[in-house]
Amino acid sequence: MRIIKRKTLSDYWAKHADARPSLQSWFSEAQNASWKSSDEIVKSYPYADPIADNRIVFNIKGNSYRLVVKIHYNTGVIFIRFIGTHAEYDKIDAEKI
Predict the structure, then answer these.
(1) What are the DSSP calls for the chain, one per residue?
(2) Residue 26 has pLDDT above 90, yes or no
(3) Which of 19, 50, 54, 87 has the lowest CB atom count within 10 Å?
């Protein structure tokens, strides 16, 4: 899969070093994946939550952080929509961000 924008993740882990290993691991796995549906993602990430409009919420670093992505399965592109703490996530509408 192609991930737009890795820089969003690297900027985040520059400020939150404890998130770096988990985000790098997620990035590597997602980049090498060929997901065709949210069901395939949940098989690999049982704590991932599919939400509206082909968005997935990933729990990062034991649910300390949340990563929201939008996936275009037909083109194999993942768009990073949000990365933040659990408290920050609670303040957004993940279905619209």
Answers:
(1) -EEETHHHHHHHHHH-GGGHHHHHHHHHHHHH----SHHHHHHH-TT-EEETTTEEEEEETTTTEEEEEEEETTTTEEEEEEEEEHHHHTTS-TTT-
(2) yes
(3) 87
Answer whether residue 94 is part of any domain: no
Each residue's pLDDT tens digit, 44-90: 899 999 999 899 999 999 889 999 999 999 999 999 999 999 899 99
Residue 6 belongs to some domain of the structure:
yes
Q: Global pTM? A: 0.92
Residue 70 belongs to domain spanning: 2-89
